[in-house]
Write a structure and sequence with these properties.
327 residues, alpha/beta, 8-stranded mixed β-sheet, 10 helices, 13% strand
Length: 327
């Protein structure tokens, strides 16, 4: 009965739009139906744990900040040092596009690589005609340096293979650069790619032997490579040898390292003596793996691009390297 009477009073007050009861009377009317207030939490026992966790977090953050600051300082100092060394070498050993000066820079070396290989990269922010022109100019500069030094074989690896798609244009660019260095006495030039007829002085030339130079003329042979000439070539060769073995055309005992080496040398290229990386980091970018088993690899830390000083330092390092092939 009490509950029904209170309900009637509340409804009557609601019909009169709250004019029958005062705010205090309405609170006393619904107070019995409200839940009991929550018990006070005992947070005093948890406060030491929270303080310890906060202190531990702050210590970890402080240690991380110190390590990050020291490592960043080390990276900046290292980059500054390498930039200064690079600038000094660029000033002291600038070639002035004179073959005589380049030959003078390598005159004291005990040996020169017969086959030099380089890895170039098409800059992501320069993709298009500008990036392609810069890439061709870098390839032409390296080709001219090799011709001045007397390196007969140069292989240029570029992951996307864009130089291979513009083979005649690359040939004209390299020829123009050789003319800038040598004038009328420029060496004969042969540019090719795996499974593509080579261009010798502007015309197709089926024989891709880099040693072949007409009438004793100075000769440089350039081979353009891409990622499809790397692991995929090994996969295709493996499939071919497996199929020949299954068809009894080749005995399993006849498959040897010498056979694989001969097949890859004929289809792609032989092992280079020296591989030069012009990037800031050590990365082969899918370079043919079989050909670098015994290759001397040279890299300048924090290097920003293709430069004559890097090329020259690579030749000096190669001349001092000890080749230990084992038994």
């Amino acid at each position: 009965m009490v509950a029904s009477r209170e309900t009637q009073v509340y409804r009557a007050d609601a019909k009169q739009q709250g004019s029958l009861l005062s705010p205090n009377q309405r609170e006393n009317l619904i107070k019995p139906y409200l839940p009991s207030p929550p018990a006070p939490s005992h947070s005093s026992s948890q406060s030491p744990w929270r303080i310890r966790a906060l202190i531990r977090h702050q210590i970890h953050f402080l240690v991380f900040t110190i390590i990050h600051t020291l490592f960043s300082l080390y990276i900046r100092l290292r980059q500054t040092y390498h930039a200064l060394v690079d600038r000094v070498f660029a000033i002291l050993y600038y070639h002035h596009r004179a073959p005589e000066l380049i030959q003078q820079d390598v005159r004291g070396l005990s040996r020169i690589p017969e086959h030099l290989s380089v890895i170039l990269e098409l800059k992501g922010e320069e993709r298009g005609s500008t990036g392609l022109e810069g890439l061709m100019d870098e390839a032409a500069e390296i080709s001219a340096w090799c011709a001045c030094v007397g390196i007969p074989m140069l292989s240029i690896y570029e992951k996307t293979g864009i130089l291979k798609r513009y083979l005649p244009t690359t040939h004209r660019t390299v020829s123009s650069k050789l003319h800038d260095y040598f004038g009328r006495s420029m060496p004969s030039l042969q540019i090719g790619a795996p499974h593509v007829p080579a261009l010798l002085n502007g015309g197709e030339f089926e024989n891709t032997d880099p040693r072949g130079s007409p009438s004793g003329q100075t000769h440089i042979s350039i081979l353009l490579l891409s990622s499809e000439d790397g692991r995929s070539t090994l996969v295709d060769l493996t499939k071919t040898l497996a199929e020949m073995s299954q068809r009894n055309k080749l005995a399993p005992d006849d498959i040897s390292r010498d056979l694989i080496d001969a097949e890859i040398t004929e289809s792609v290229m032989g092992e280079p003596d020296l591989l030069v990386l012009f990037g800031p980091n050590v990365g082969l970018q899918g370079y043919p793996p079989w050909q670098v088993r015994l290759t001397e690899i040279f890299h300048v830390q924090d290097n920003g691009g293709v430069g004559y000083q890097v090329f020259l330092r690579a030749l000096h390092r190669y001349a001092k390297a000890q080749m230990r092939f084992g038994r």
